Protein backbone atom coordinates (compact mmCIF):
# COMPACT_ATOMS: atom_id res chain seq x y z
CA UNK A 1 0.00 0.00 0.00
CA UNK A 2 1.52 3.33 -1.05
CA UNK A 3 1.63 6.15 1.50
CA UNK A 4 -0.03 8.62 -0.88
CA UNK A 5 -3.12 6.37 -1.06
CA UNK A 6 -3.59 6.76 2.69
CA UNK A 7 -2.75 10.47 2.56
CA UNK A 8 -5.59 11.00 0.10
CA UNK A 9 -7.91 10.03 2.95
CA UNK A 10 -6.33 12.77 5.04
CA UNK A 11 -3.38 13.05 7.44
CA UNK A 12 -5.58 12.20 10.42
CA UNK A 13 -6.48 8.77 9.06
CA UNK A 14 -2.85 8.30 7.97
CA UNK A 15 -1.66 8.83 11.56
CA UNK A 16 -4.39 6.58 12.95
CA UNK A 17 -3.46 3.76 10.60
CA UNK A 18 0.27 4.33 11.16
CA UNK A 19 -0.21 3.97 14.91
CA UNK A 20 -2.41 0.92 14.45
CA UNK A 21 0.00 -0.73 12.00
CA UNK A 22 3.03 -0.21 14.23
CA UNK A 23 1.02 -1.68 17.11
CA UNK A 24 0.12 -4.71 14.99
CA UNK A 25 3.76 -5.32 14.03
CA UNK A 26 4.66 -5.05 17.70
CA UNK A 27 1.87 -7.50 18.54
CA UNK A 28 3.14 -10.13 16.09
CA UNK A 29 6.67 -9.88 17.47
CA UNK A 30 5.39 -9.90 21.04
CA UNK A 31 3.15 -12.96 20.60
CA UNK A 32 5.81 -15.09 18.95
CA UNK A 33 8.48 -14.01 21.45
CA UNK A 34 6.14 -14.79 24.35
CA UNK A 35 5.32 -18.19 22.85
CA UNK A 36 9.01 -19.00 22.46
CA UNK A 37 9.85 -17.79 25.96
CA UNK A 38 6.92 -19.69 27.53
CA UNK A 39 7.70 -22.95 25.74
CA UNK A 40 11.40 -22.69 26.62
CA UNK A 41 10.56 -22.08 30.28
CA UNK A 42 7.78 -24.66 30.73
CA UNK A 43 8.44 -27.25 27.97
CA UNK A 44 4.68 -27.79 28.13
CA UNK A 45 2.28 -27.35 25.22
CA UNK A 46 -0.62 -27.70 27.68
CA UNK A 47 0.56 -24.77 29.79
CA UNK A 48 1.09 -22.63 26.70
CA UNK A 49 -2.28 -23.47 25.14
CA UNK A 50 -4.04 -22.80 28.45
CA UNK A 51 -2.35 -19.42 28.70
CA UNK A 52 -3.48 -18.48 25.18
CA UNK A 53 -7.01 -19.79 25.77
CA UNK A 54 -7.41 -17.68 28.91
CA UNK A 55 -6.18 -14.50 27.21
CA UNK A 56 -8.40 -15.04 24.14
CA UNK A 57 -11.44 -15.75 26.32
CA UNK A 58 -10.73 -12.58 28.31
CA UNK A 59 -10.71 -10.46 25.15
CA UNK A 60 -13.98 -11.95 23.88
CA UNK A 61 -16.02 -12.00 27.07
CA UNK A 62 -14.86 -8.68 28.58
CA UNK A 63 -15.63 -6.76 25.38
CA UNK A 64 -19.30 -5.88 26.08
CA UNK A 65 -18.56 -4.84 29.66
CA UNK A 66 -15.65 -2.52 28.85
CA UNK A 67 -16.85 -1.05 25.54
CA UNK A 68 -18.76 1.81 27.18
CA UNK A 69 -15.47 3.48 28.14
CA UNK A 70 -14.73 4.07 24.45
CA UNK A 71 -17.98 6.05 24.17
CA UNK A 72 -17.49 7.85 27.49
CA UNK A 73 -14.10 9.50 27.05
CA UNK A 74 -12.48 11.52 24.29
CA UNK A 75 -11.62 8.70 21.88
CA UNK A 76 -8.07 9.78 21.00
CA UNK A 77 -7.19 10.37 24.66
CA UNK A 78 -8.68 7.01 25.58
CA UNK A 79 -6.74 5.19 22.85
CA UNK A 80 -3.52 6.89 23.97
CA UNK A 81 -4.22 5.76 27.55
CA UNK A 82 -4.75 2.20 26.31
CA UNK A 83 -1.53 2.34 24.29
CA UNK A 84 0.59 3.44 27.22
CA UNK A 85 -1.02 0.84 29.51
CA UNK A 86 -0.11 -1.93 27.04
CA UNK A 87 3.38 -0.46 26.66
CA UNK A 88 3.78 -0.65 30.44
CA UNK A 89 2.87 -4.35 30.46
CA UNK A 90 5.27 -5.08 27.58
CA UNK A 91 8.02 -3.21 29.45
CA UNK A 92 7.41 -5.39 32.53
CA UNK A 93 7.68 -8.53 30.39
CA UNK A 94 10.94 -7.22 28.91
CA UNK A 95 12.31 -6.61 32.42
CA UNK A 96 11.24 -10.08 33.59
CA UNK A 97 12.89 -11.68 30.56
CA UNK A 98 16.10 -9.71 31.13
CA UNK A 99 16.18 -10.79 34.80
CA UNK A 100 15.39 -14.40 33.88
CA UNK A 101 12.21 -14.37 35.97
CA UNK A 102 9.31 -16.51 34.68
CA UNK A 103 6.08 -16.96 36.60
CA UNK A 104 3.16 -18.48 34.74
CA UNK A 105 0.53 -16.79 36.93
CA UNK A 106 2.13 -13.37 36.47
CA UNK A 107 2.51 -13.92 32.71
CA UNK A 108 -1.13 -14.99 32.41
CA UNK A 109 -2.28 -11.98 34.44
CA UNK A 110 -0.32 -9.62 32.20
CA UNK A 111 -1.78 -11.16 29.05
CA UNK A 112 -5.31 -10.92 30.48
CA UNK A 113 -4.74 -7.21 31.15
CA UNK A 114 -3.54 -6.72 27.57
CA UNK A 115 -6.54 -8.66 26.24
CA UNK A 116 -8.92 -6.55 28.31
CA UNK A 117 -7.40 -3.36 26.91
CA UNK A 118 -7.53 -4.72 23.37
CA UNK A 119 -11.20 -5.64 23.80
CA UNK A 120 -12.15 -1.97 24.11
CA UNK A 121 -9.34 -0.28 22.14
CA UNK A 122 -10.09 -1.92 18.78
CA UNK A 123 -13.83 -1.01 18.75
CA UNK A 124 -12.86 2.52 19.78
CA UNK A 125 -10.51 2.79 16.80
CA UNK A 126 -13.26 1.57 14.46
CA UNK A 127 -15.67 4.08 15.98
CA UNK A 128 -13.17 6.87 15.36
CA UNK A 129 -12.75 6.30 11.61
CA UNK A 130 -15.90 8.21 10.50
CA UNK A 131 -14.63 11.24 12.44
CA UNK A 132 -11.29 11.23 10.60
CA UNK A 133 -12.32 10.90 6.95
CA UNK A 134 -14.63 12.87 4.69
CA UNK A 135 -18.25 11.86 4.26
CA UNK A 136 -18.56 9.05 1.72
CA UNK A 137 -15.01 7.77 2.30
CA UNK A 138 -15.66 5.36 5.18
CA UNK A 139 -15.83 2.32 2.88
CA UNK A 140 -12.53 3.30 1.27
CA UNK A 141 -10.93 3.85 4.68
CA UNK A 142 -12.11 0.48 6.02
CA UNK A 143 -10.89 -1.22 2.82
CA UNK A 144 -7.44 0.37 3.06
CA UNK A 145 -7.28 -0.53 6.74
CA UNK A 146 -8.13 -4.15 5.90
CA UNK A 147 -5.46 -4.20 3.18
CA UNK A 148 -2.72 -2.95 5.48
CA UNK A 149 -3.78 -5.22 8.34
CA UNK A 150 -3.77 -8.19 5.96
CA UNK A 151 -0.30 -7.26 4.71
CA UNK A 152 0.99 -7.07 8.28
CA UNK A 153 -0.66 -10.41 9.02
CA UNK A 154 1.28 -11.77 6.05
CA UNK A 155 4.73 -10.41 6.92
CA UNK A 156 4.41 -9.97 10.70
CA UNK A 157 5.19 -13.58 11.67
CA UNK A 158 8.17 -13.60 9.30
CA UNK A 159 9.58 -10.44 10.91
CA UNK A 160 8.97 -11.86 14.39
CA UNK A 161 10.58 -15.22 13.59
CA UNK A 162 13.59 -13.45 12.06
CA UNK A 163 14.23 -11.40 15.20
CA UNK A 164 13.95 -14.47 17.44
CA UNK A 165 16.22 -16.53 15.16
CA UNK A 166 18.86 -13.80 14.80
CA UNK A 167 18.82 -12.69 18.44
CA UNK A 168 16.61 -14.21 21.15
CA UNK A 169 13.10 -14.06 22.55
CA UNK A 170 14.23 -11.45 25.08
CA UNK A 171 15.67 -9.17 22.39
CA UNK A 172 12.53 -9.68 20.30
CA UNK A 173 10.42 -8.51 23.25
CA UNK A 174 12.53 -5.35 23.46
CA UNK A 175 12.09 -4.73 19.73
CA UNK A 176 8.36 -5.23 20.21
CA UNK A 177 8.41 -2.54 22.90
CA UNK A 178 10.27 -0.19 20.54
CA UNK A 179 7.64 -0.62 17.83
CA UNK A 180 4.94 0.04 20.41
CA UNK A 181 6.66 3.25 21.51
CA UNK A 182 6.51 4.43 17.88
CA UNK A 183 2.83 3.48 17.78
CA UNK A 184 2.17 5.59 20.87
CA UNK A 185 4.00 8.54 19.30
CA UNK A 186 1.79 8.39 16.20
CA UNK A 187 -1.37 8.60 18.33
CA UNK A 188 0.08 11.43 20.44
CA UNK A 189 0.86 13.41 17.26
CA UNK A 190 -2.69 12.79 16.05
CA UNK A 191 -4.05 14.19 19.30
CA UNK A 192 -1.90 17.32 19.47
CA UNK A 193 -1.74 18.23 15.77
CA UNK A 194 -5.34 17.65 14.68
CA UNK A 195 -8.47 18.81 16.46
CA UNK A 196 -11.05 16.07 16.92
CA UNK A 197 -14.24 16.93 18.77
CA UNK A 198 -14.89 15.09 21.98
CA UNK A 199 -18.10 13.14 22.43
CA UNK A 200 -20.52 15.48 24.17
CA UNK A 201 -23.46 13.15 24.81
CA UNK A 202 -23.92 10.68 27.59
CA UNK A 203 -20.75 11.38 29.62
CA UNK A 204 -22.78 11.59 32.86
CA UNK A 205 -24.32 8.15 32.43
CA UNK A 206 -22.89 5.50 34.72
CA UNK A 207 -20.93 2.50 33.52
CA UNK A 208 -23.92 0.27 34.27
CA UNK A 209 -26.33 2.35 32.19
CA UNK A 210 -23.88 2.63 29.30
CA UNK A 211 -23.26 -1.12 29.31
CA UNK A 212 -26.99 -1.78 29.54
CA UNK A 213 -27.45 0.66 26.66
CA UNK A 214 -25.02 -1.38 24.55
CA UNK A 215 -27.04 -4.58 24.98
CA UNK A 216 -30.25 -2.64 24.34
CA UNK A 217 -28.86 -1.00 21.20
CA UNK A 218 -27.62 -4.21 19.57
CA UNK A 219 -30.96 -5.89 20.28
CA UNK A 220 -33.17 -3.07 19.00
CA UNK A 221 -31.08 -2.36 15.89
CA UNK A 222 -32.41 -5.42 14.12
CA UNK A 223 -30.02 -5.29 11.17
CA UNK A 224 -26.99 -5.41 13.51
CA UNK A 225 -28.61 -8.05 15.70
CA UNK A 226 -29.30 -10.26 12.69
CA UNK A 227 -25.75 -9.70 11.39
CA UNK A 228 -24.34 -10.72 14.78
CA UNK A 229 -26.45 -13.89 14.89
CA UNK A 230 -25.44 -14.87 11.36
CA UNK A 231 -21.78 -14.08 12.07
CA UNK A 232 -21.81 -16.16 15.26
CA UNK A 233 -22.92 -19.20 13.25
CA UNK A 234 -20.27 -18.52 10.59
CA UNK A 235 -17.51 -18.08 13.17
CA UNK A 236 -18.64 -21.18 15.08
CA UNK A 237 -17.97 -23.26 11.96
CA UNK A 238 -15.17 -21.36 10.20
CA UNK A 239 -12.95 -20.38 13.14
CA UNK A 240 -12.27 -24.06 13.99
CA UNK A 241 -11.75 -24.82 10.30
CA UNK A 242 -8.87 -22.38 9.89
CA UNK A 243 -7.36 -22.80 13.37
CA UNK A 244 -7.78 -26.57 13.92
CA UNK A 245 -9.01 -28.48 10.86
CA UNK A 246 -6.59 -27.12 8.24
CA UNK A 247 -3.40 -27.67 10.31
CA UNK A 248 -4.60 -31.17 11.25
CA UNK A 249 -5.62 -32.00 7.67
CA UNK A 250 -2.31 -30.89 6.16
CA UNK A 251 -0.09 -32.52 8.78
CA UNK A 252 -2.01 -35.70 9.66
CA UNK A 253 -4.14 -36.55 6.61
CA UNK A 254 -1.98 -35.26 3.75
CA UNK A 255 1.30 -35.93 5.63
CA UNK A 256 2.84 -32.70 4.35
CA UNK A 257 5.45 -30.45 5.99
CA UNK A 258 4.59 -27.16 7.70
CA UNK A 259 5.72 -25.19 4.64
CA UNK A 260 2.45 -26.14 2.91
CA UNK A 261 0.49 -24.72 5.83
CA UNK A 262 2.52 -21.54 5.44
CA UNK A 263 1.70 -21.46 1.72
CA UNK A 264 -2.00 -21.92 2.51
CA UNK A 265 -1.98 -19.03 4.99
CA UNK A 266 0.05 -16.89 2.56
CA UNK A 267 -2.54 -17.47 -0.17
CA UNK A 268 -5.37 -16.62 2.24
CA UNK A 269 -3.69 -13.36 3.27
CA UNK A 270 -3.01 -12.53 -0.38
CA UNK A 271 -6.73 -12.95 -1.07
CA UNK A 272 -7.48 -10.50 1.74
CA UNK A 273 -5.06 -7.95 0.29
CA UNK A 274 -6.10 -8.17 -3.36
CA UNK A 275 -9.78 -8.12 -2.49
CA UNK A 276 -9.33 -5.09 -0.22
CA UNK A 277 -7.42 -3.21 -2.89
CA UNK A 278 -9.44 -3.94 -6.01
CA UNK A 279 -11.91 -6.81 -6.22
CA UNK A 280 -14.32 -5.85 -3.43
CA UNK A 281 -14.87 -2.37 -4.86
CA UNK A 282 -15.44 -3.77 -8.36
CA UNK A 283 -17.94 -6.38 -7.16
CA UNK A 284 -19.77 -3.84 -4.96
CA UNK A 285 -20.13 -1.40 -7.86
CA UNK A 286 -21.31 -4.21 -10.12
CA UNK A 287 -23.88 -6.01 -7.95
CA UNK A 288 -24.44 -3.71 -4.96
CA UNK A 289 -23.51 -4.03 -1.29
CA UNK A 290 -26.22 -6.57 -0.39
CA UNK A 291 -25.35 -8.99 -3.19
CA UNK A 292 -21.66 -8.43 -2.47
CA UNK A 293 -22.15 -9.76 1.07
CA UNK A 294 -24.33 -12.66 -0.13
CA UNK A 295 -21.70 -13.60 -2.71
CA UNK A 296 -19.08 -13.53 0.04
CA UNK A 297 -20.96 -16.09 2.14
CA UNK A 298 -21.59 -18.40 -0.82
CA UNK A 299 -18.00 -18.12 -2.09
CA UNK A 300 -16.62 -18.84 1.39
CA UNK A 301 -18.77 -21.94 1.92
CA UNK A 302 -18.16 -23.35 -1.56
CA UNK A 303 -14.39 -22.73 -1.36
CA UNK A 304 -14.08 -24.43 2.04
CA UNK A 305 -16.12 -27.39 0.81
CA UNK A 306 -13.97 -27.71 -2.32
CA UNK A 307 -10.73 -27.59 -0.31
CA UNK A 308 -11.35 -30.94 1.39
CA UNK A 309 -13.32 -32.57 -1.43
CA UNK A 310 -10.54 -31.95 -3.97
CA UNK A 311 -7.92 -33.35 -1.62
CA UNK A 312 -5.14 -31.67 -3.61
CA UNK A 313 -2.93 -29.28 -1.67
CA UNK A 314 -2.15 -27.09 -4.69
CA UNK A 315 -5.82 -26.60 -5.55
CA UNK A 316 -6.47 -25.97 -1.85
CA UNK A 317 -3.87 -23.21 -1.79
CA UNK A 318 -5.64 -21.50 -4.71
CA UNK A 319 -8.98 -21.90 -2.96
CA UNK A 320 -7.50 -20.31 0.17
CA UNK A 321 -7.09 -17.15 -1.94
CA UNK A 322 -10.85 -17.22 -2.65
CA UNK A 323 -11.54 -17.68 1.06
CA UNK A 324 -9.55 -14.54 1.80
CA UNK A 325 -11.49 -12.65 -0.88
CA UNK A 326 -14.82 -13.75 0.57
CA UNK A 327 -13.91 -12.56 4.06
CA UNK A 328 -13.32 -9.06 2.68
CA UNK A 329 -16.61 -9.14 0.76
CA UNK A 330 -18.37 -9.78 4.06
CA UNK A 331 -16.36 -7.82 6.64
CA UNK A 332 -15.66 -4.55 4.82
CA UNK A 333 -19.28 -4.00 3.83
CA UNK A 334 -20.69 -4.90 7.24
CA UNK A 335 -18.07 -2.79 9.08
CA UNK A 336 -18.84 0.20 6.85
CA UNK A 337 -22.55 -0.08 7.60
CA UNK A 338 -21.93 -0.33 11.35
CA UNK A 339 -19.47 2.58 11.52
CA UNK A 340 -21.52 4.91 9.33
CA UNK A 341 -25.09 4.17 10.43
CA UNK A 342 -24.51 4.09 14.21
CA UNK A 343 -24.81 7.37 16.20
CA UNK A 344 -21.42 8.75 17.11
CA UNK A 345 -21.76 8.25 20.86
CA UNK A 346 -22.69 4.57 20.41
CA UNK A 347 -20.11 3.50 17.80
CA UNK A 348 -17.62 1.86 20.16
CA UNK A 349 -20.31 -0.03 22.05
CA UNK A 350 -22.06 -1.17 18.87
CA UNK A 351 -18.79 -2.39 17.35
CA UNK A 352 -17.81 -4.16 20.58
CA UNK A 353 -21.21 -5.80 21.01
CA UNK A 354 -21.23 -6.98 17.39
CA UNK A 355 -17.75 -8.43 17.87
CA UNK A 356 -18.74 -10.05 21.16
CA UNK A 357 -21.89 -11.72 19.83
CA UNK A 358 -20.26 -12.85 16.59
CA UNK A 359 -17.29 -14.46 18.39
CA UNK A 360 -19.19 -15.68 21.46
CA UNK A 361 -19.16 -19.30 20.32
CA UNK A 362 -15.56 -19.37 19.01
CA UNK A 363 -13.99 -21.08 22.05
CA UNK A 364 -16.75 -23.71 22.05
CA UNK A 365 -16.34 -24.30 18.32
CA UNK A 366 -12.62 -24.91 18.73
CA UNK A 367 -13.10 -27.16 21.76
CA UNK A 368 -15.58 -29.48 20.02
CA UNK A 369 -13.93 -29.45 16.58
CA UNK A 370 -11.42 -32.11 17.58
CA UNK A 371 -14.15 -34.41 18.85
CA UNK A 372 -16.21 -34.11 15.67
CA UNK A 373 -13.14 -34.60 13.46
CA UNK A 374 -12.31 -37.84 15.29
CA UNK A 375 -15.96 -38.92 15.14
CA UNK A 376 -16.84 -37.98 11.54
CA UNK A 377 -13.49 -37.42 9.85
CA UNK A 378 -12.14 -34.22 8.31
CA UNK A 379 -14.09 -34.34 5.04
CA UNK A 380 -17.64 -34.94 6.39
CA UNK A 381 -17.11 -32.48 9.25
CA UNK A 382 -15.83 -29.76 6.90
CA UNK A 383 -18.54 -30.34 4.28
CA UNK A 384 -21.23 -29.96 6.95
CA UNK A 385 -19.57 -26.79 8.29
CA UNK A 386 -19.26 -25.29 4.81
CA UNK A 387 -22.86 -26.18 3.95
CA UNK A 388 -23.98 -24.20 7.00
CA UNK A 389 -22.18 -21.14 5.61
CA UNK A 390 -23.77 -21.53 2.16
CA UNK A 391 -27.28 -22.01 3.54
CA UNK A 392 -26.96 -19.00 5.85
CA UNK A 393 -27.13 -16.66 2.82
CA UNK A 394 -30.92 -17.06 2.32
CA UNK A 395 -31.36 -16.10 5.99
CA UNK A 396 -30.00 -12.65 5.11
CA UNK A 397 -32.60 -12.32 2.37
CA UNK A 398 -35.30 -13.28 4.87
CA UNK A 399 -34.39 -10.31 7.07
CA UNK A 400 -36.14 -7.15 5.86
CA UNK A 401 -33.94 -5.05 8.16
CA UNK A 402 -30.72 -6.44 6.70
CA UNK A 403 -31.91 -6.11 3.11
CA UNK A 404 -32.94 -2.52 3.71
CA UNK A 405 -29.70 -1.49 5.44
CA UNK A 406 -27.35 -3.18 2.97
CA UNK A 407 -29.23 -1.70 0.00
CA UNK A 408 -28.28 1.85 1.05
CA UNK A 409 -25.35 3.70 -0.44
CA UNK A 410 -22.81 5.17 1.95
CA UNK A 411 -24.36 8.64 1.94
CA UNK A 412 -27.75 7.24 2.91
CA UNK A 413 -26.21 5.17 5.72
CA UNK A 414 -25.19 8.20 7.78
CA UNK A 415 -27.54 8.43 10.76
CA UNK A 416 -29.66 5.56 9.43
CA UNK A 417 -29.84 3.61 12.71
CA UNK A 418 -30.70 6.74 14.68
CA UNK A 419 -33.64 7.51 12.38
CA UNK A 420 -34.84 3.94 11.92
CA UNK A 421 -34.40 2.54 15.45
CA UNK A 422 -34.80 5.52 17.84
CA UNK A 423 -35.83 3.21 20.69
CA UNK A 424 -32.33 1.72 20.64
CA UNK A 425 -30.68 5.03 21.54
CA UNK A 426 -33.27 7.31 23.18
CA UNK A 427 -34.96 7.07 26.54
CA UNK A 428 -38.72 7.50 26.79
CA UNK A 429 -38.91 8.86 23.26
CA UNK A 430 -36.65 11.85 23.97
CA UNK A 431 -34.11 12.77 21.31
CA UNK A 432 -30.45 13.34 21.99
CA UNK A 433 -28.46 15.81 20.01
CA UNK A 434 -25.83 13.93 18.02
CA UNK A 435 -22.37 15.35 18.66
From TrEMBL:
The entry's keywords: Cell membrane, Membrane, Transmembrane, Transmembrane helix
Subcellular location, record wording: Cell membrane
CDD domains, A to Z: MFS_MefA_like
Database matches in PANTHER family: INTEGRAL MEMBRANE EFFLUX PROTEIN-RELATED, MAJOR FACILITATOR SUPERFAMILY ASSOCIATED DOMAIN-CONTAINING PROTEIN
Gene3D superfamilies (UniProt xref): MFS general substrate transporter like domains
GO molecular function: transmembrane transporter activity
Top-level taxon of the source organism: Bacteria
Predominant location: membrane
InterPro entries assigned: MFS, MFS_trans_sf
GO cellular component: plasma membrane
Transmembrane segments: 45-66, 78-98, 177-194, 225-250, 262-283, 290-307, 313-332, 353-373, 379-400
Protein name, entry field: MFS transporter
A Pfam family of this chain: MFS_1
Membrane topology, as annotated: Multi-pass membrane protein
Amino acid sequence: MKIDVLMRLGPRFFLLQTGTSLGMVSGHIFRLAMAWWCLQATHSAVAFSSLIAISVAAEIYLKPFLSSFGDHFHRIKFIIGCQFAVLGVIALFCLASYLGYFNLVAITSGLVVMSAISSVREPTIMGLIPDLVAEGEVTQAVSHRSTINSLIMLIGPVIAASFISLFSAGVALSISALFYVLSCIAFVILFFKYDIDAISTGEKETWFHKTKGAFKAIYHVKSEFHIALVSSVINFTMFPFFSVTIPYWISSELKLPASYLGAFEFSFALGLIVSSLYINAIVREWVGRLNNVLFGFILLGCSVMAIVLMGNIYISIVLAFLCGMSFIFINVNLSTLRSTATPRDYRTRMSAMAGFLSSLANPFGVSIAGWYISLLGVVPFTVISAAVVVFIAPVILCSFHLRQALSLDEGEMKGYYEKTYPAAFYKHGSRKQDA
